[in-house]
Amino acid sequence: MNDFFNTLGIEATKEEKKIKKAYRARLHAVNPEDDPDGFKRLREAYEEALKYARQKEEEPENLSPAEEFISRCEQLYKNFYRRIDEQEWEKLFSEDICISLESGEEVRQRFLVFLMENFRLPSPVWKKIDQTFSITGNRKELLELFPEPYVDFLQQVVRYNGALNYELFEGDVSEDVDDYIEHYHKLRQYADLGMRKEAWEEYHFIEANYDICHPYILLEKARLLYSDEEREKQEEGGEIFRSLAKKYPQEERIVCCYGRYCQEKDTWDGTIALYDAVLEAHPESFLARTGKMESILHEGRYREARESILDLLEESPVDERLVADLNKANVYVIAELEPKYKDSLLDQDGLMELAWCYYQNSRFEDGIALMDGFVPDEEHYLDYHNLKGRIFLTVNKDAEALEHLVPWLHAIQKLRPDGTKKTTRQMARLGYAYYTIASAKADLILDGQEGSLLEVMDYIEKAVEAEQDFSQKVSYYHTAADIWRRKKEYAKMFDIAVISHCEDLGLADGGQMNEGFMATYLGLKGITRAAEEVMVSRDILIAEATHAAIHIAHVSTRGSVELVRQAKKRGVNVTCETCPHYFTLTENAVDGFNTNAKMNPPLRTSDDVEAIKEGLKDGTIDCIVTDHAPHHIDEKNCEFALALNGIVGFETSLGLGLQYLVKSGVLTLNELIEKMAVNPSRILRINKGSLSIDADADITIFDPSKEWTVDISKFQSKSKNSPFDGFTLCGKPEYVIVGGKIVVSNGELA
Fold first, then answer.
1. Is 627 among the residues known to form the active site?
2. Catalytic residue of the set 347, 627, 696, 725
């Protein structure tokens, strides 16, 4: 048995999916013509591995009702045509076990785990899953159970799982359909990225190795041919587009690709009818609506096209092609409305439409002049202040902008859902309203006027929280970064380093400990490494761009260490620090809901601990600090979620450094002293960390070989919140001199 699994390059397994994947991977390297014997051995190994996987095992006894339910889900999934049948899943989900108060939550959790490996399902089935197990409306709850990337995947696939129409499969789908789908996605990805060689290799591999057919494979072939430099291949691609569209007249992706081909060839006749056929089956199709809009625009129906563009921009606000089409339509709408405006023939609907056209086409002064000419009625109050505030903000009249943006925000906050498209759109602007106010306030403050950047950042956080569009959220973070960059430029004027505690609050999102096994085991919400690493990356890039100094506080992950390491190699003026708990403890210290091990950043994994030691050894990490955070017993002796972050660090920092770094050979004693005293003084530019003449007389005297056991009851600090109670360390300070005065004698406060 081991021989044929060795041939496949995997461990023995009963999972057919793994066996098939390994076989496909090996096929790339074995050509039957060049190496018939090797191909024969590979094929035999594949068949024997499948036999082994399909050997029936004894049915497990005493399955719980939830386990038995998942077992039936697995059987349903294995049969492709049953798998894609919405009614099969609906029948399964209607069982009492799914809706019962006693069993429903357990089934839900088990089923969502099941989906981790079994997710090749058509869109209608995903809609049923969402209806039954509440995926899209319970993000926060799901994040308490599963890693954030998986939650994002679930919510994305429920909303946008239109990449493949499962009804269009032909051929033998009983064996390798999931592998086929995986290779299709690779093919499409290569084609989307312009990786033509890889795309063609993937296409030929699919054609040669599967008895399954799907028109999307031909569609990708047509796309590759059409993007070729040779005219004959372009025409061949066009013919494939045409034949596929004729065969599948309501298939969104196929028809829209053909419609785009026609438009690019300047053969517009009949394109509206093409898109209408798709929209009959898929009324919300973004691709079809966009294609139809462009055909309408080409016909000169500018007002109609403009309305369509505005609807589409609601879904894709940064689409450059849509913005260009809007500018084009606006030119003609302005030409139609301006004469009426000059003759005072426009009502407030017409005035606001013209003002928006001016704004969207960068005719800001015209927009201001128009809007200064009337007082909005109640119906147009919100829209008026929205637009006028935006115009003033765009032309850098921040004070004037705030006079309109603040009333706009307050008006949005008073709105209540009424089922109309207009109100829904207005309420969706809440995040953007917060953002515009933040931008105006930041510009005023950074230009020298009074105000608090903390208030600005608060507005940005509110903007992120309220915003529904992910790309907009990202742009808000970019604004915050720009403000941070400008702040650093001011810091550079004073030749000082900015100390940054790197944490993306949006990614941390109320987490309690490191995202990983222990968080899952304890049922606590995790904090992803990315929450730290994206901010480390951001601040390094800003420091590099501004030539300012940046000091990264409390580095805790391998990724952060590597980011700093590479930045230093590029000559970026960056320094960083870590704390003893990050080179001594892992997330396992939290086991048992140990609140003394709760800190920010959280304790990470053993791999991160090793990375911290590597960073200390090679000089990437400049300093060791305590992050001393004493807390009253009541602030730690409570539920883990309510406990405050931090530990008492002063009394154990030296001993931990000597025990875990010097004694183990990671650092020399002199290097430890440099990390704990010399480098921090240098970075902060204070007259400490040295025994030279005229330096501050701050001295610690210790015996590096003296062992001692940590006893928190004997701490000099009034706080006792330390996870190191009972640890055996070496090198306890015996004397401490501050400013020439002895403050600790024989280990006790003097």
1. yes
2. 627
